[in-house]
Amino acid sequence: MAYVDKVKEEIGWLKVVFAILIAADISLVAWLAQNHRKADPFLVVAGVIGAFLVTFVIVWINNVAYRKINDLEEL
Questions:
Q1: Is residue 62 helix, strand or coil?
Q2: Diameter of the chain measured on Cα atoms
Q3: Nearest alpha carbon to residue 33 among 52, 47, 53, 20
Q4: Going along 1-75, which residue ranges are E strands?
Q5: For residue 48, what are the contacts with CB-CB under 8 A and spacing of at least 6?
Q6: How far is C-alpha 44 from the geometric centre of its chain's CA atoms?
Q7: pLDDT tens-digit profile of 4-61?
């Protein structure tokens, strides 16, 4: 497999992971918005921490994907 094809495949997988994490993050934030008053405080804190972690991973994957795209430009 050529290097260009390998990078394109990696970008494809990053898009899938990115989409899954976006859906999970939106769902988690929506749950927090609806249940922050009636949920157990531990769950709310865990949800907020989880939302921050998932958002951080989304930003990281986005940066990795852009680096791969820039690698393709140079070839």
A1: helix
A2: 54
A3: 47
A4: none
A5: 32
A6: 20
A7: 889 999 999 999 999 999 999 999 999 999 999 999 999 999 999 999 999 999 999 9
Residues 6+ apart with CB under 8 A from 50: 28
Contact 21, 57 (CB under 8 A): yes
Dihedral, CA of residue 37, residue 42, residue 44 and residue 47, to nearest 10? -160
- Please indicate, yes or no, whether the overall pTM of this predicted structure exceeds 0.70: yes
Nearest in space to 75 (alpha carbons), one of 10, 13, 7? 7
Give the whole-angstrom CA distance, residue 32 versus residue 39: 9
